[in-house]
Amino acid sequence: MRRRKPTEGFILCGIFFWTITAHLISTCFATQLEERMEIVRKVLKEVPLIDGHNDLPWNIRKFLKNQLREFRFGEDLRDITPWSTSAWSHTDLRRLKEGMVSAQFWSAYAPCSSQHLDAVQLTLEQIDLIRRLVNLYPQHMALVTTADGIEESHRTGKLASLIGIEGGHSIGTSLGVLRTFYQLGARYLTLTHTCNTPWADCCKVDEPGRVPHIGGLSHFGTLVVTEMNRLGMIVDLSHVSVPTMLDALATSKAPVIFSHSSAHAICNSSRNVPDHVLKRIAVNGGLVMVAFYPHFVSCGEKATLKDVVAHINHIRDVAGVDHVGIGAGYDGVNLVPQGLEDVSRYPYLFAELLESERWTEEDIAKLAGRNLIRVFRQVEQVRDQLEAQGMLPIDQSIPPEDILGRSYCRYSGPRT
């Protein structure tokens, strides 16, 4: 029998040692992760996890033409076409429950190409779709329009479903349409999408070589924000230009939000929030709900859960822990970070944050939902104060010169 050389024995011992060590380290990390996950589950049982933006309603329009008879939302859509073959699909009831999501703002979206055409109709159809979807699953979902409603749904184990209008072009330059959307349940309006409106500049004008249309909000734009304050509708500044952000912050008497944006200092996308605005958000009492889209997180096509953590930590550092939340943007993106593949993965994000001693259970509770509930309640308080002061609905129309040459389909008769 061949005798091993001494060096061979040392090599075998080394391999054995490192194999055992790697196994022990792996086991230790797994144990620590599970301990953190238990803490997360405990927090999310006590506090609702609220996501600021999900584009599922537009996907239903794309794939099913808004027909819900064949939409099996209660099943795993990863096993059902066309959802199973789409990079844009990340959401179903099973995965929302697995992700411990308690409240979701569903986006009622109309593309920019519909501006001055049928944007109002498209948005109404999306609101109708959201309401019909909720009604199909009364055991699992509830339409919610108040901060108290979020907490009540959390107590009863139902997904609080809220409506957000994504894009100011959806109101058709009409405060009457804005008020009607509110009456139908919409609780935030994103002032622009990726197109200027006749009364507000979008984020695109901040890109190199682009020229602002207005330079922020027009006078009518400030009236939109003021009327939203009167209604109790949250002002959402995702997608708007930096001057529009500043004008809205100067106008609004209530806290504002960014429903799905990240930190410009880490990724200089025009969709993200610069530090000087983050500081104003802290003064305003508002909230930045961090988006997961890699192009907003890493400024590339690939990102990781840790990259999202970096944005959360940066916003916390600049604005404070009371002014950061979650607005993933699922179903509106075709790329997601590694580790945050769909709506089931939120607990892993919170567990990652708990790995740092700077994040406490109370901090996680604020990030998950308490911050948004505080903002919502303050928006409602401003509404109640303005009502007590006798403020009436604003009945001014947009000046005709503001839409001259941009109104392709508009009644030219008498106007109010």
Automatic annotation (TrEMBL):
InterPro entries: Metal_Hydrolase, Pept_M19
SUPFAM superfamilies hit by this protein: Metallo-dependent hydrolases
Membrane protein topology class: Lipid-anchor; GPI-anchor
Location(s), subcellular: Membrane
GO (cellular component) term, any one: side of membrane
Catalysis: reaction(s): an L-aminoacyl-L-amino acid + H2O = 2 an L-alpha-amino acid
Biological process according to GO: proteolysis
Top-level taxonomic group: Eukaryota
Quaternary structure note: Homodimer; disulfide-linked.
PANTHER family: DIPEPTIDASE (PTHR10443:SF46), MICROSOMAL DIPEPTIDASE (PTHR10443)
Protein name (record): Dipeptidase
Species: Anopheles christyi
